[in-house]
Amino acid sequence: LTGITQMQVEAGIPLQICLSRFNRWLQNLQLEKGVTFPNKQQTCSASVSTQKLCTFLTWSDWDLGVCLQYECKRKQLLKPEVLNNWIDLRSTYRLFYNRKPKGLNGALQDLGIQFSGREHSGLDDSRNTARLAQRMMRDGCVMKITRSLER
User: What is the pTM of this model?
Assistant: First the structure.
């Protein structure tokens, strides 16, 4: 389904190391690019309006709201707090266009965009999700955090 082989899985790094490296990369990104990852309450705040706001964008809540959440709990790992807020593009798409797409590929097709690459490949899905979000913003959609795991 994903194209990931068993050999790639075995050569991979543990989730704890991955999250640590990812967090370090995010911190460097924030310093170098000046981006801010706001929590859900801060998105409407005037104090962050002059900053470069950034958040994660997913197609559904599965990856960040279920899969990563469960895996971190199971392995007793701390995940970067910035992964507690994101935009679910699927629900944003439904609300903005008032229709329910048949998956990411279906949403792209609805807008006349050809899916590029292989479905369910993480990198290809990410790129296509970004292309869809760009199109939606060109069509006037304002992206807002749709899900927060913060209390």
Answer: 0.87
